Amino acid sequence: MADTESEATESQRPNNAARARVSFVGAGPGDPDLLTVRAAALLADADVLVVDPVLLDRFAPRCRHGIEVIEIEPASFDDALPPTNGHSGNGDGARFGAASAPPLVCFDQISAAVRAGKSVVRLLDGDPGLFGSFEAEAAACAQAGLPFEVVPGLARATAVPVFAGIPLTKGSIGDVRLLSAPRLDDHADFTAWSDWHRQLGEAGTTTSTLVLMGIGDRIDEVAAELLAAGRSADTPVAVTVDGSLTSQRTITGTLDRIAAGLKAEHMIKPSPDTVVVVGSVVERRSELSWYETRPLFGWRVLVPRTKEQAGALSEQLQSYGAVPHEVPTIAVEPPRTPQQMERAVKGLVTGRYEWVAFTSANAVKAVAEKFGEYGLDARAFAGIKVAAVGEQTARALRAFGVVPDLVPSGEQSAAGLLEDFPAYDPAFDPIERVFLPRADIATETLVAGLVELGWEVDDVTAYRTVRAAPPPAEVREAIKGGGFDAVLFTSSSTVKNLVGIAGKPHASTVIACIGPQTAKTAEEHGLRVDVLAPEPSAAVLAEALAAFGRARREAAIAAGEPVLRPSERRSSRARRAK
Fold first, then answer.
1. Less CB within 10 Å around the terminal CB: N or C of the chain?
2. CA distances from 114 to 22, 118, 121, 358 (A)
3. Into which CATH architecture does domain 20-154 fall?
4. CB under 8 Å to 525, separation ≥6 — which residues?
C-alpha cells in the first residue's frame, strides 16, 4: 500500500475523539480516481479499513502504509452485526484476512477500534445510501453508541450509464426507476422477492426508464417478466459490465433479443455489478458514447520502463483509454569506479563548472545520492546553471530542490537540448566547463555538440545500466502468448533487453517504435513494426499508437465488424479454430 505518511510511526499518530468514528465511504462505481476529495482524504488517514475483498486491491494504494485491514464478504456483514429487533445472524460470520471469523467478531473489532480512538473507514461500493448494507450497519453503530459519518460516492446506478453514453433522462424531464434485485444468498426472504417481482411487474406497464441492479446473469428472466407485464418487445436495452473501468463493455439490443445478444458476445459475463438500462434513452448511446470509443480503450500496453520512468507516458496512454503495464528492462547500478563521480561532485562545490546538464532522472538520482554521502543538498547548485533534457528529468530536479534553467523548448532529447544550449562566450561565461553526469551506455551526441559550441565537457559515468531481472512468469506468458495488445519500444536497448528477459512478443501484438534505429533492431529480432513515431519522442510515440488504434477502430466500424482489441482478435480466431 502507498505510504502517505512516511515520517509518522503508528505510535505517533494521534488517538483522540475527533478521529474516533466510523466513516461510511462511497467508493463510487469502480475507478479509484472517482473518489470524492473527502473520501480520498479519509482513506489516506484511516487506522482501520473494513472492505469487501473485491474492492481491496483496487483501493489499497489509496491507503496509508500499515493500515489494519478487515476483509468482509458483501453478504456477511449483516451476520456479524449485534442482534437488533430480535434478529440474529445466521452463523456464517465475517471474514478477517483469509480466515472465517465467528459472528460478531467484525463489529466487535470495529467497536474496539473506535473506542481506542482510531478512525475506521467502511468502504462501500457506489453510494452508501443506495442499494447497499449501509442502513443496517449504520443502525448497528447508532445502537452501540459509536459516532459515525457518511461520505456519499458516485452511485453505480447513475454513473455507469453515463460512462456508457446513456443519459437517464431526456433534458430536464424524465421518469426514472431504480430497481435492485434481492441477493441470491439472502436466506429465504420471501417478502423481498415478492416486492421485487411486484415492482418489476409495475415497471413493465410503464414507459419509465428502468435502471436494474443485481440481476447478474438472470437478464433473460427479467426481460421475459417485463415483456409479460406489457413492455414492448422493441424497447431498447443496454447491459454494461465493469462500469467506469477500462474493462467496461456495453451490449445493446431490444428487450426480446438482448439475452441472445449477450450469448453472442463471449466477452460479456454479467455479474452482480452489471447495470441494465431499459428505455428509449439507450438510443442516445450511438451519439453520446465517449468512454468506450477512446482510441486505445481497454488496450493492455506494455511499457518497458520502471514506474518512475514511465510516469508521464503511462498517464498519456491512460488518457487514450489504455491500461499501461510497466516492465523494467534495465536496472541501474553505481559505476564500477566511483572516483570520477566523486571528483566531479567536489568540483561542482568548488566552482569548477558553469553548467550541469542532466540527461535522465537516473542521473539526477545518482548525483543526489552522492550529495547525501557528503552531507550536501540542493544549495550546492547555487550560482551554477542547470539544464534538463526533458520534463521528466526536470520534475526529478524540482523534487530534489533544483529548478532547471534550461529545458528544451522543442524536441525533448539530446538533439533538442543542443538546439537551445548557448554557445560558450568568454565575455559572459567566466567558466567554460560543463559537468555531464550520465549512463555508461549513453551516446556521444550531446558531448560532441557541446564541444562544437565551445564548451569543455567533463563526461562522467554517474550510473551503469544492466539488464533487469525477468518479470513474473504470468507477465512473461502474457508477452509471449498475446496477452498484451501493444508494446512501446523507446530505444534499441529496450528491444534487446525485453526479448532477453521475457521472450519475443506474440505476432498479434502491435509493435510501436520511437525511431528508425529502434525499428531496425525490432525487425532484426523478428518483430513486425506496426507504428513508427514521426519524431523521436515518447509522447509522439504514444500519439502515433493512438492514431493507429483510432484508424483500426474506424476501419472495423466501416466494415461492419466488431471493434476488437488485438488480443481479442487472437482469442476470437482461436475460438473459431476450435
1. C
2. 7, 5, 10, 50
3. 3-Layer(aba) Sandwich (3.40)
4. 495, 496, 499, 504
Task: CATH number for 300-329+469-577: choose from 3.90.550.10, 3.40.50.10090, 3.40.50.300, 3.20.20.100.
Answer: 3.40.50.10090
**Tens digit of each residue's pLDDT (9 = 90 or more) over 97-156:** 333 333 334 888 999 999 999 999 999 999 999 988 888 899 999 999 999 999 999 999
What cell does 268 get?
Answer: 460479456
Domain ranges in the chain are: 20-154, 158-288, 300-329+469-577, 332-467
Q: Which helix (H) or strand (E) holds 485?
A: none
CA dist., res. 571 & res. 225, Å (int): 35
Buried b (16+ CB within 10 A) or exposed e, 359-382: bbbbbbbbbbebbeeeebebeebe
Please write down the long-range contacts of 498-504, taking CB distance under 8 Å and 24 or more positions apart: 498/302, 498/304, 498/327, 498/329, 499/525, 500/467, 501/329, 501/467, 501/468, 501/469, 501/470, 501/471, 502/327, 502/470, 502/471, 502/475, 502/476, 503/476, 503/479, 504/480
**For 322-423, where are the alpha helices, taking DSSP H only?**
339-349, 361-373, 391-400, 414-420
Would the pTM of this model clear 0.85, i.e. be above it? no
Q: Read off the pLDDT band of 75 (50, 70, 90).
A: low
Sign of CA dihedral 178, 179, 183, 184: negative
Strand partners, 458: 435
Treating both helix axes as pointing N-terminal to C-terminal, what angle do 492-502 and 473-481 enclose, rounded to 10 degrees?
110
What CATH number does the domain located at 158-288 have?
3.30.950.10
The answer to which of 114-118, 278-282, 369-373, 437-441 has the lowest mean pLDDT is 437-441
Domain covering 332-467, topology: Rossmann fold (3.40.50)
